[in-house]
Design goal:
By secondary structure, the chain is of the alpha+beta class. It has three domains: 6-74, Multidrug-efflux Transporter Regulator, Chain: A, Domain 2 (Orthogonal Bundle); 84-115; 124-301, Multidrug-efflux Transporter 1 Regulator Bmrr, Chain A (Alpha-Beta Barrel), CATH 3.20.80.10. It is 33% helix and 27% strand. The strands form three sheets. Strands 4, 5, 6, 7, 8, 9, 10, 11 and 12 form a nine-stranded antiparallel sheet that branches. Strands 1-3-2 form a three-stranded antiparallel sheet. The radius of gyration is 28 Å and the shape is elongated.
Length: 310
């Protein structure tokens, strides 16, 4: 074979900026296959025009694009050069979103370290009434949450219109675990309706009716930008901290209740309530009722023999 147009692996490594070890790995994974392998020595040779491809691989790996994705993009299975450009633009948008999320998380953490969550999130306790609800569930992470909720509630309102159902409260979401960019969990879109009125019929597959019992809820509210992800995570943390610090037990999935919702995640008019069902210790609460009719418990008074939560 004429090797004048070939570079041995050492020279190719220098030209491409990829280590010899990386080149062997990319050969084994089918990302960058040498033009010739000496059958006796096993030494790898690459064409000179493969240098640009190797440099592209190096750049994509520096962007944390997985090896399998690099192989797919360079293999022509994604629409050639136009597909590669589109994939890189999508990757850039995702990276910018991750950076924005990280920036918000850092600012939130700094705020909690310097001010404390109690400075921005006031936690109260109220009684949640028993409810009959329409439920649509899915297991997903935060990236799919908005689209799922929009579709689920559109379906529910269509079902409600056939009744027609009498809705008795705002829509809410139940999270059965952590739902962020790295974790999937069961998420349930919920819509309460009057149990003594018309009842839903011909439910779509995957939609059910469920009875929620009366419960005690530890709550806080957020508005505007604070109601958008990831800023809203601080509200969940504040309620969780309050529950643990006051000696309560978590008694069910956390709820995100749409008290006022414009349809745009960070709109100033949005108001969400984070409500977590709890089991309370033995004791009596001092309770008052606000102008909106919702009761709020302000203090815990132990009964004889009870230990007050610290």
């Amino acid at each position: 074979m004429d090797r004048r147009n070939l570079l041995p692996i050492g020279q190719f490594s220098q030209a491409s900026g990829l280590s010899v070890t990386a080149l062997r790995h990319y050969d084994a994974s089918g990302v960058l296959v040498p033009a010739f392998v000496d059958p006796v020595s096993g030494y790898r040779y690459f064409r000179r025009d493969q240098v640009r491809t190797a440099q592209s691989i190096r750049a994509m790996r520096q962007l944390d694009i997985p090896v399998e994705e690099v192989r797919r993009l360079l293999g022509g299975g994604s629409g050639g050069e136009e597909g590669l450009v589109a994939a890189l633009q999508a990757h850039l948008r995702a990276a910018e979103r991750r950076l924005e999320v990280q920036r918000s998380l850092v600012h939130g953490l700094l705020g909690r370290l310097t001010e404390g969550a109690e400075m921005t999130h006031h936690v109260t306790v109220r009684r949640g009434a028993a409810e009959r609800i329409l439920v649509r569930g899915a297991t997903l992470d935060n990236s799919g949450l908005d689209a799922f909720l929009r579709g689920a509630y559109q379906e529910m309102y269509e079902v409600g219109g056939r009744g027609p159902l009498t809705f008795t409260g705002p829509a809410f979401v139940r999270f059965h675990g952590v739902c962020d960019d790295e974790n999937e969990t069961l998420v349930e879109a919920c819509l309460p309706f009057w149990e003594d009125g018309a009842q839903p019929t011909d439910l779509p597959e995957g939609m059910i009716v469920r009875e929620l019992p009366e419960s005690t809820l530890a709550c806080t509210e957020v508005e505007g930008a604070a109601a958008a992800f990831p800023q809203i995570l601080g509200a969940y943390d504040a309620v969780a901290n309050w529950i643990t610090e006051h000696g309560f037990a978590f008694a069910g999935p956390a709820r995100m209740i749409h008290r006022r919702w414009t349809g745009t995640p960070d709109a100033p008019g949005n108001r969400l309530e984070i409500a977590w069902p709890i089991d309370e210790p033995t004791g009596d609460w001092v309770e008052s009722r606000g102008s909106d009719g919702r009761s709020t418990r302000h203090g815990w008074q132990p009964t004889a023999g009870a230990v007050s939560p610290q």
